Amino acid sequence: MSFKFEKLNIWKKAMELGEDVDAIADTFPKKELFNLSSQIRRAADSIALNISEGSILQSDPEQKKFLGYSIRSLAEVVTCLYKAKNRNYINQDYFDEKYDFCYHLMNMLIAYRRRFL
């Protein structure tokens, strides 16, 4: 037995991103605990949460709406990555790696969302 979302590659990738972001946020300065660290964690976790919520007992328009929330949260993660890079909390290589991952995930989310048009 499994839930529908557990079979979705977009959900698996979003889960991976959430764990990666959680680990890197642990390295941010203590002053960011309730600011950037919290914000990037919540945004990253929101991606997978909205994918799963939208996939359970939702109409196609509702699922499309939740995928839109996931895409917006992903954009928020990217902006937080820029903030972290600009504040020298992450290096350019890490930024580039996560940026590429986010860009690929965004394209996957958009392609999947088009199914519900």
Automatic annotation (TrEMBL):
Domain of life: Bacteria
InterPro entries registered for this protein in UniProt: 23S_rRNA-intervening_sequence (IPR012657), 23S_rRNA_IVS_sf (IPR036583)
Pfam families: 23S_rRNA_IVP
Residue stretches spanning the membrane: none
Entry protein name: Four helix bundle protein
Species of origin: Marixanthomonas spongiae
Phylogenetic lineage: Bacteria, Pseudomonadati, Bacteroidota, Flavobacteriia, Flavobacteriales
